């Protein structure tokens, strides 16, 4: 387990800092995937990533609300939120997640989803003719456990599941399946690693656009803070608060978010 606790700090937005009578002062416990760089990952024993840094900036720095950001395997993260061990996560909203959590409408981050293939795959030419997700139905897809988007959108597809997203790309590179689906954030990040460099290619087809939003468990004592979080996100887009966070992880300041 890798955790970081962001305590109270100087408030930069007085409009959002007045406590509500009876409001809980306990830390908001957010959980994130262990292998989803640059969004969330572990480095030298510390929990890092774009999603974690944005959560800390909004809650701790701008709202004065303590927040715990912890990394676990993604499937476990979701079980923790369902069971009440954690308050929420930042992820793609799905029908299933909506049964136990309220998910926001303002994206923390957007990322296009593309097919990823081995350059020497004999079926690559056929895959490249696809014009939509439905056209990929006849190919074997490599995904990972806890991928709610895959569970909702790949029903009826032939899908192999790896332990996590990074492992799914390693499996694809080693010959398992025909393709994986990865974003221009995490997919592109891992494809640049020495072990995968030159072994995988991201195709131009945009299968979907992931919109990562804050989801807070409906029974969480912090559930009402979702609207506050999203108001601050809008301010950060105006005042440039996103820029240093994106640049910290090697992403251009004009990245779509």
How many individual domains?
A: 2
Number of beta-strand segments: 14
Cα radius of gyration in angstroms: 19 Å
CATH level-four homologous superfamily name of the largest domain: Periplasmic binding protein-like II
Largest sheet: 8 strands, mixed
Strand content: 25-35%
Number of helices: 8
Give the averaged pLDDT, no decimals. 90
Q: What structural class do you assign from the helix and strand content?
A: alpha+beta
Task: Show unreliable segments.
Answer: 1-23
Classify the helix fraction into a percent range.
25-40%
Pattern of helices and strands: EEEEEHEHEEEHEHEHEHEEHH
Q: Specify the CATH class of the largest domain.
A: Alpha Beta
Annotated CATH architecture of the largest domain? 3-Layer(aba) Sandwich
3D shape: globular
Question: Describe it for me?
Answer:
The protein is an alpha+beta fold and 257 residues long. The chain folds into two domains: 2-109 and 212-248, Periplasmic binding protein-like II (D-Maltodextrin-Binding Protein, domain 2), CATH 3.40.190; 111-209, 3-Layer(aba) Sandwich (D-Maltodextrin-Binding Protein, domain 2), CATH 3.40.190. Helix content is 28%, strand content 27%. The chain has helices at 50-62, 74-83, 124-128, 148-153, 165-173, 186-191, 225-239, 242-248; strands at residues 2-6, 28-33, 35-36, 40-43, 46-48, 67-72, 88-92, 101-103, 109-117, 140-144, 158-162, 179-183, 201-202, 208-217. Strands 7, 8, 9, 10, 11, 12, 13 and 14 form an eight-stranded mixed beta sheet that branches. A three-stranded mixed beta sheet has the order 1-6-2. Helix 4 links the parallel strand 10 and strand 11. The protein is globular.
